[in-house]
Design goal:
about 65% helix, mainly alpha
Length: about 210
């Protein structure tokens, strides 16, 4: 893409960047789970986008192009951290709370609809859950699962693209997504039961009659 002069270049960039800043930060926060890290990722992505602006072929695809840069910026940092032995070991194991299957077993026994993604629960269940609880469920996922599901379900990447971005086999992408959805099912069912918006036949929680 070409510009008349440096002033035109900066003005064009800033006009298109400003409306996207909240979305960029929100996406970065989902990926990092840390406000400071999210700000750093966004700042680095903006710097990279500015320096590479002349490579943008289609101005109409600026949004997608910028989010792709954001994703690559995060993945570069994530890979660097994953290369640390302890970080890699920690990220491969889920927390005891996340692995608690009691609520999920009950979910199956009651023949409730499965949560393939959080928009597919029955209306009463979905409408009763607060947005922050949904975010908490996502944040509670171990890093490999959270990153995979955010890239696919939030960012819209294909399985093949995620495989390439993360440098992992396609089968690993599929297994991480399956595991992520399973963990989300368990946690959201537990939250709904504790909030009293889902039936509790175990006597462990939920609103009593």
């Amino acid at each position: 893409m070409t510009f008349h002069d440096a002033s035109h270049r900066r003005q064009w960039f800033e006009q298109r960047l400003e409306p996207l800043m909240d979305r960029l930060y929100g996406t970065a926060l989902r990926l990092t789970r840390n406000p400071d890290d999210a700000e750093d990722i966004v700042a680095e992505a903006v710097v990279r986008a500015w320096s590479q602006l002349d490579k943008l072929r289609d101005p109409e695809r600026f949004d997608a192009w910028l989010f792709h840069i954001l994703t690559n910026t995060f993945i570069s940092e994530w890979r660097r951290r994953q290369s640390r032995p302890q970080a890699a070991a920690d990220s491969d194991s889920a927390s005891p709370e996340a692995l608690d299957a009691d609520g999920f077993t009950l979910f199956q026994q009651l023949h409730q609809p499965f949560l393939l993604w959080w928009g597919s629960l029955e209306d009463q269940f979905f409408n009763s859950l607060l947005q922050e609880e949904l975010q908490e469920a996502l944040d509670a996922l171990p890093d490999p699962y959270r990153v995979a599901i955010v890239l696919v379900e939030v960012q819209g990447y294909t399985y093949e693209e995620v495989s390439g971005l993360l440098g992992i086999p396609l089968g690993t992408v599929r297994s991480r997504l399956s595991r992520a959805r399973s963990l989300l099912q368990k946690r959201l069912w537990k939250q709904a039961r504790e909030a009293g918006v889902a039936p509790d036949h175990t006597g462990k929680g939920g609103r009593q009659p």
